[in-house]
UniProtKB/TrEMBL annotation:
GO terms for molecular function: 4 iron, 4 sulfur cluster binding; metal ion binding; quinolinate synthetase A activity. Pfam families: NadA. This is Quinolinate synthase. It comes from the Bacteria. One of its GO terms (biological process) is 'de novo' NAD+ biosynthetic process from L-aspartate. Signal peptide: none annotated. The keyword GTP-binding does not apply. Pathway: Cofactor biosynthesis; NAD(+) biosynthesis; quinolinate from iminoaspartate: step 1/1. Keywords: 4Fe-4S, Cytoplasm, Iron, Iron-sulfur, Metal-binding, Pyridine nucleotide biosynthesis, Transferase. Its cofactor is [4Fe-4S] cluster. One of its GO terms (cellular component) is cytosol. Its EC number is 2.5.1.72.
Amino acid sequence: MSPAFPVPVRPVIQQPPMVEEVLDDAERETLKARIKTLMKQQDAVLVAHYYTSADLQDLAEETGGCVSDSLEMARFGHAHPAKTLIVAGVKFMGETAKILNPEKRVIMPDLGAECSLDLACPADEFTAFCDAHPDRVSVVYANTSAAVKARADWVVTSGIAAKIVKYLHQQGHKLLWAPDRHLGDYVQRITGADMLLWQGSCVVHEAFKAEALKKLRTEHPDAAVLVHPESPEAVIALADVVGSTTQLIEAVRTLPNPEFIVATDNGIFHKMHAAAPGKILLEAPTAGEGATCTSCAHCPWMAMNGLRKLVAVLENGGNEIHIEESIRARARLSIQKMLDFAAAEKAGHIQLGD
Ligand code: SF4
């Protein structure tokens, strides 16, 4: 007899309006100089996600910080001696940094910077889902709250999700996956694992349109199509490379194609241009048949980060991430499993086979 808890319905998430910080050169330089002084005084390092503004990415690199994906941001912060971590990104990234660095002060430019995947998966509903399926191992994507990570058996990033699911499948486990239905569906297709999927989605990636992408590819026959697996199946089916943000940047750097059509947040173009100057980058279309996009290849929550807000936080305090210790410690265990798996797989201690 199957459990009474139904597979979740698709949650409706309201996006905030897109408000991007616009600065002239003089204000930009004044703000950056002030931030650098304050960072020194407060022994702080800045870690920024690929989807944040070019100003924040440049500032992170100019001050010895890093620009990366969410897990590498947390890892970098852990290895860096600074007592304060400034996380420019969205809230679950600040939480992940705090989970791995409980002794450090973790602050963010705007604590209201959320993520549609995180919002779509409240901890109490996820707990009920897990409780209804005690025979399944729960695997959650990094884009979740600390409380959801604490309830999960495993946390995965997009770069390692398929390997971990394949490993668990080969061990004979049935799985429960949250929150991104597209990434879960993609992983299920390539691993053949038995997975029950939560129905969340990313507002940016869900908006990419397959028919318009086919047309654009026809117009640019030398272009390679790069797709993040949070995108719909029909878009993934058109990809030359499917991968995490870091893997897509690496593809631009290493593939011989002169042009790339990129289906992920366009904030990543700043790093791609730096990694492969001279290559042409085109946004995958978000308009076309059935278009519903209001964010148009850029995350409205990522756009909440900016230099003005960062100055205000450093001058006035606040916007610090706090996590109850019992939740933090359990979330750490689920993340640690992924880190241990990655290390073991890299060392050749785990063989996944075909
Ligand atoms: S781009 Fe999508 S997955 Fe990333 S933070 Fe924004 S809503 Fe979340």
